[in-house]
Amino acid sequence: MNEAFPDIQKIQYEGPKSKNPLSFKHYNADEVVAGKKMRDHMRFGVAYWHAMRNSLADPFGVGTAQRPWDDGTDSIANAQRRVWACFEFMDKLGVDYYCFHDRDVAPEGKSLADSNKNLDAVADELEKAQNATGKKLLWGTACLFVHPRYNQGASTSPNANVFAYAAAQVKKAMDVTHRLGGEGYTFWGGREGYASLWNTNIKREIDHLAAFLHMAVDYKKKIGFKGPFYIEPKPREPSTHQYDSDAAACLNFLREHGLMEHFKLNLETNHATLAGHSMWHEMEVAVAANALGSVDANTGDELIGWDTDQFPTDIYLTTQMMLVILKMGGFTTGGLNFDAKVRRESFEPVDLFHAHIGGMDAFARGLKIAAAIIEDGRLDAFRKARYSTFDTGIGAKVEAGATSFEELEAYTLENGEPLIGSGRQEMLENLINEFI
């Protein structure tokens, strides 16, 4: 096929002094930072649903996106042509991974059998493109929220026939992800929640969700899929309340239902905002449970009350995120997937490049700053000193589970009022500003 982006050459690193908008100012893929190449730290991914499929409609207007390679039909030929546009985009951008929902890459058919046939036909093309370019699938997932059958949920639907259909769809999405060498598989409960408690039995719905995921674990073992499962938290929108509302809720659900060893979290910045948290908070909660698997790298507009999926440009945000990722030892199978869309006003194909370049540069800066903060050592030293009373004596006994209320009472009666130190928040904020 003809090139989808004929006027755009491969994006090169030109350094911070470059004025070329189609160049990297900070992301130098093979530059070594903190012992690894940038590309290996980041493991950037293109979100197929936004980069290739988003029409840029919003609640008040139709789509504006100009995508010359796409004829706007649901034909298999168009879906296969779109594959090569995506892989050309990744190649010119220098991104190694992509992510997809089953219905992003292949059209829904009139029946499940037709949909499966369509997905297989496009998977053939994806496999060819992967082999031709060396690009890889970071993770796959099933779209269980767009079709009207899922208007009251998928695995949490009150209708058992919908539950069964969702299971069949996930089975096929897992098969295709496995076939394409996907490094993980994500569950996003876009409608796994409720709109009204008047008609909802929460316990039954959550139990059904757990049963669904246990069946997925069983099938994963049966087909020999080795990658991790991810759950992606989001508190609301489109539902009033979604059961995977934030990192802590997901982790508690997994623990309660015996699923913790099989799942990690795929966290999204915009979803953290909707949950009333910072992305830093969500990531720290996940890392504390050894459950941070992958990241949807976007951001949201705090002045708008929905999921705006904007590209990340805030250096404080990317620094915080990279500090956590470095702290946990880096990604293994996960990565930074740009679950972000260009704005409705940015409708030309070249805008896809501008947006991704900006996000990649923002994370490159965040990585370098985070590595410098860690190498400097002052932040870690302060944190360590702040908890030093738990390193020895009565504090060490608390952490070892080797004391009691009676002993702690006796200790306090003997030692009197505790002497506590300042948290030095302002000093630490000034310290971080030295690097940013």
TrEMBL record:
Record's cofactor remark: Binds 2 magnesium ions per subunit.
Gene Ontology terms describing biological process: D-xylose metabolic process
Binding, Mg(2+) 1: 232, 268, 296, 339
Keyword Iron: no
Localization in the cell: Cytoplasm
Enzyme Commission number(s): 5.3.1.5
Catalytic reaction(s) noted: alpha-D-xylose = alpha-D-xylulofuranose
Residues the entry annotates as binding Mg(2+) 2: 268, 271, 307, 309
Protein keywords: Carbohydrate metabolism, Cytoplasm, Isomerase, Magnesium, Metal-binding, Xylose metabolism
Active site: 101, 104
Enzyme class: isomerase
Record has Transmembrane as a keyword: no
Family: Belongs to the xylose isomerase family.
Protein's name in the database: Xylose isomerase
Source organism per UniProt: Brevifollis gellanilyticus
Gene this protein is translated from: xylA_2
